[in-house]
Amino acid sequence: LKIASVTGGGAADKAGVKAGDVIVSVDGTDVSGFRDFLTALRVGPRAGDEARKAGDKVKLVVKQGDKTKEL
Predict the structure, then answer these.
(1) Cβ-contact 52, 58 below 8 angstroms
(2) Rounded mean pLDDT of the chain?
(3) What is the rounded distance in angstroms from the CA atom of residue 50 to the CA atom of residue 22?
(4) Nearest to 24 by CA among 66, 50, 62
(5) What's the pLDDT tens digit per position in 3-21?
(6) Are 12 and 21 in contact (CB under 8 A)?
(7) Residue 33: which residues within 8 A CB-CB, separation 6 or more?
(8) Each residue of 45-71: pLDDT tens digit?
(9) Within the chain, what is the greatest distance between any pair of CA atoms?
(10) 4, 30, 61, 63 - which has most CB atoms within 10 Å?
(11) What is the pTM of this model?
């Protein structure tokens, strides 16, 4: 999932997400498209966890050019 833009000063910007980054995974769940991304954000990382809420932190693995970073 390629990031088109990042709001300056927002949580993603502060975490180091940049326009053009490609999200590879969210909390260990592989993401290959927008639907996967939304699904990974809606549920916790383990079965039985409560759904995430706005402001909850997640670990992202992103590709920035030829480098892969965990944010």
Answers:
(1) yes
(2) 87
(3) 27
(4) 62
(5) 999 999 998 999 999 999 9
(6) no
(7) 1
(8) 555 566 677 778 889 999 999 999 999
(9) 36
(10) 61
(11) 0.78
